[in-house]
């Protein structure tokens, strides 16, 4: 698969060069999108698929520093050839809470992961969303999850409504 790593540096602008340099150096890069008036903040990876053969990750409503630390945990695990289950809770990422990974529906890619789409020249890469529970231990789709918490993690595994 051709990626932007295959492009000559002089064909890239400065932001693109920096992005590609990070992927060359670390195997991946993180993009953090700040919260705005009606848009949740979110963070996602680019390079996990190319470097580790593992899905890219996206998560919502955590500070960039926290998201970046979580991505490093996954990068180190993937480097050690560890894998994680999908659609079931597992531990080892957040100190006291399980997390769940769900596959992101590709219809959401244009809204959320444009650097990844650019890097991979399209949408031929898997993306998983990392969900964390509320303080009650409930995930956003569970009946006892606090309503304000549910809105902090949109479920991108569901296809876009037509």
UniProtKB/TrEMBL annotation:
InterPro entries for the chain: DUF4262 (IPR025358)
Protein's name according to its UniProt entry: DUF4262 domain-containing protein
Taxonomic path: Bacteria, Pseudomonadati, Pseudomonadota, Alphaproteobacteria, Rhodobacterales
